[in-house]
UniProtKB/TrEMBL annotation:
The keyword NAD does not apply. Residues 1-75 form the O-methyltransferase dimerisation domain. Keywords: Methyltransferase, S-adenosyl-L-methionine, Transferase. PANTHER family: O-METHYLTRANSFERASE. This is Uncharacterized protein. The gene is ga21158. It comes from the Eukaryota. GO terms for biological process: methylation. It comes from Eleusine coracana subsp. coracana.
Amino acid sequence: MALQCAVELGIPTAVHRAGGAASLPDLLAAVPVPEHRKPYLPRLMRFLVVTAAALSEDNSRVVYRLTPLSRLLVDDDVAVNGCTSLAPFVLSQTTRFHVGAALRLSDWFKQGADDDSGGAPAAEMPFRMAHGTDPWDAMRRDPVVSKMFHDGLGADSRLALDFVVNQCGAVFDGVGSLVDVGGGDGSSARAIARAFPHVKCSVLDLPHVIGSVVVQQPSDGVEYIVGDMMSFIPPSDAVLLKVCCSTCHQHPSLPVNSE
């Protein structure tokens, strides 16, 4: 949560804008907190340094510097070395839904198969135990959390695809069409379409996801298709499963422990 706080306060960006090394007075002047909260900022900074989560400290002058991790958390408009900021990804993984599910993890492990006292059978996800529903339904009900989640996946995709298109472009030789299954805001598909114009890219995702993407994002020649990957995947030369491989086993359309 300290890392989430640092991102929301813009601390990595403030250090970067100070030339990569910021004193405590520099941060107190740059971070948007009221005067009566500023005495507590050194405690947060010390925690970030001790855990090596985001900053290092020059003890001789009490100057804070960016670590390799915190360089990835600088805002996109001043991104270090052209790297995409992963700040949205940090925020997407520290929502109240994620934290609530994490707090029920030990309960989930200890719960017996026939014990429903925790709100869900032991065979189901800690997320459902904590919130009474699955992540997809939770995001359908909460547009703010849904946007935060897909912004995070988009940031992760942009960082990963920057590497893929520059270092692994040969994998797209001979590929005429590609569908990004569960492609969210289409960040991956757009990156591929820009780098390889001969590849016709499309994105398959659920209705509430596609509905928000079309309004908020330019298509860049990418086709957006409404659908459920468990029911239908459009025919194409290649299928991109960037995130689905780690999450599809928890999809509500699949039985528990399905492979």
